[in-house]
Design a protein that fits this description.
- The structure holds 2 protein chains of 2 kinds.
- Chain A is mainly α.
- Helices cover about 70% and strands about 0% of the residues of chain A.
- Chain A is built from 9 helices and no strands.
- In chain A, helix 1 crosses helix 5, helix 2 packs antiparallel against helix 3 and helix 3 packs antiparallel against helix 7.
- The two termini of chain A are about 15 Å apart.
- By secondary structure, chain B is of the alpha/beta class.
- Chain B has 23 helices and 8 strands.
- In chain B, the strands form 3 sheets. Chain B has a 4-stranded mixed sheet with strand order 1-2-3-4. A two-stranded antiparallel ribbon of chain B has the order 5-6.
- Chain B is elongated, with a radius of gyration of 30 Å.
- The chains are: A mainly alpha, B alpha/beta.
- At the A-B interface, helix 2, helix 3 and helix 7 of A face helix 10 of B.
Amino acid sequence: MHDVNPVEQHRRFLIRSLPGLARHTLATMPWVTVFAGCASGTVVLALMAHFAGHSPLNQDNVRVTFLPAVGALAFVPHVHFRPVVQTTPVPTWIATGGQILLALPVLALTCWVQLELMASTYPAQYAKHLPAVYPLIAQLTGWCLLTLSVAAGCERTRYAALSGAIAAPAVFVAIAATSFVSPLSQHLLNPPETAPAATVAWCTIAAAALVLAVLASRDQWHRYTRRLHL
Amino acid sequence: MTNVRARSVVSLARIEAVHLSRSVPVLSGLMVSGVAMWLITYRSQPLWWSNDWRIGYGQTVISLTVLVGAQLATARSRRDGLQELYESFPTSTGQRTLAHLIGVLGAAPAAVLLVGVAAGAFALQGALGTPDLTTLIGGILLVLAGGVIGVAIGSRFPHPLAGVLGAFVWLLPFSQSNRFNSAIPWLFPWVKPAQLSELPRRLAGYPPALAHALELAAIVVLAGVVALAITSAARRHRVGLLVAGAAGLAGLVVTCLVQLQPIPTRDIDRVVSEAANTGAAQHCTTSEANGHNVRYCLYPAFGSLLPTVQAPVNGVLSLTPVQLAHPLTISQTSGLDIEDSTLTHGHSSQQVTAWRARLQNAPANLPSSSAIYVNLGRWPSGGHQQSVARFDLALGAAEWAVGLPTNTGPPTGLLPTQCVPLNQAREAIAIWLAARATHLPTAQFQGRNGSYSVAAVDGTAVVVWTYPGEISGYFASPGPQTTADGYLLAQAMTKLPTARVLGLLTSNWDSWISPHATNAELASALGITLPAVRLVGPRGQVITPLAPPGSQPQCTT
């Protein structure tokens, strides 16, 4: 018998359990919800681009059509069979984090496709003179992480089963506030704020929301981390 | 047995209606709708032919939230995995769906409350005209249509996101109606036509309120039929559903076609005539104040505004020491945009060109030194905005009194056509007269937080005073471009006794209102130091303004 370091033993356990975790996460991931949210907004934008005629689409159109994707993201942190997951020797956040990691490429793809659709409505000679998209990307990232933090927060409450249904409208209200309440919109929208300043503001919000989401995704009870002597 | 079923459906519907009316989405939608209505109406003069349609526009929010709430309620059993338990109940899925459809009426009190509160508020504000019942009912139907669509979605898709996506699709036409250059926007659930507040009275068919209300009713029927068709298993119901669905579809098609019909030529012709030839279409009264005759011309529906318009003008006239030969006319005008295709769709381009030419030749589009044209759609109903507009009107009257232009006409190029009374004492006198008649708005041209604008006059950079409301469109076009020097001198004059300033002006009025009388001469005669504009940057450095490209003319005689 080799006397293995507990830390090393734990690491090996995690590596061995990864395939199982991946299978579980792939199976419990709300794919239909995510794809429905991302696809519906993109299809609507594609229709708008098709009928754009002489009035090309702008970043506001992308903001509107990205909202369903944000709404769908609110349902991603919810872990089905969470009490079962909590009894296994892996942290619960692994299931939540895995689902979020799987959703992120889909959202990134949606964002890219929608930006391409917007750009396609402009004549080729104007394509290089379009407004910078990095403030918009920062804003959409901020929306997504804000959604995750609210949904993860709801997951810790007695209303965990309704986390998505609560988080989605709550974030929509927050988004509306950042767009229409002038003290907020003055600092978060470009224009009136400059592109770098708006980007910094949204990145700050995104970072804060990420921290909150991470904190909210922790185990709800103190996990016994010492080596078990079975 | 049928009575038993009907009673059970009614009982269930009553419970669902109560649940829906107390649900968080509906209550939050009610609140947000109220705020939205206030935001889209508080700035402008309340006109019933515009505001009854805006009430419906404000109800779009509650329509969306009722959709979400109804979807959540309908999908409750399937979402919670209780479908089998519900199947054991004496009522069938179809009957429960019917109960949910009837239960949508639970959202009606909230919609009616919104209409009632908004109508009451407009009545208290003295809204002009009379409300159109069809339009108000259309707004309530919009809310009910959202609810019935929510039931249809919920009966097929139990996931909460389905309701959110349904609301998104229902919302989209509201936000994208401006992308269509035709009458298509009338077919959307609700739109906010820009020209409504520019009309001097209600124009039949703009918007097509009755056809639109019927379209929403047809949507209610169709969505209800879809919801029942999804959940009803009984074959005997299918024929009835098929008939109802066909009737709903036919109604939808017919109402859409009716809405796409152009507005009769004679109706638009009348509106254009009223907007262009303001003198013939308005009721004019001549009022005498301090020996001055002022002609007020208002559209018939706007007669109650006369005292509001008269007050600041009379305030200026009471301070004007001499009687002026040329009379002043205060007239209403309309900013009607004939390019709006929801107004002129279906008419030939020659006809539209003729209407455009008539509007371009309207008196309000010609320069004048004796007429002020008040935009009927922009005059504020009250509060701070109206006090700003009253100062602007007083300033216009004072500019007439000192011989400055009162209406410069629309800009012909990129540069403003306003002349600049550079170093002319009459500018400060005009501002002082307006300030004495109403109040002097605060302005800041210096200090760390100060902001300023610069105009070029004969190659010289002139710091200008953009007074509150100058670019708000209260008038067809503003008078001269006021300067910071004139404002500061007028501000200093307001600190002196009125009798002292009036005495000086009365003694030599003609000389003081001459373009050759300077600010320095006026300040010297009043015995005050001439204030100077000093621009200071954020680090305390003195800023020398640079002249922008182009040049504005100086005001002459």
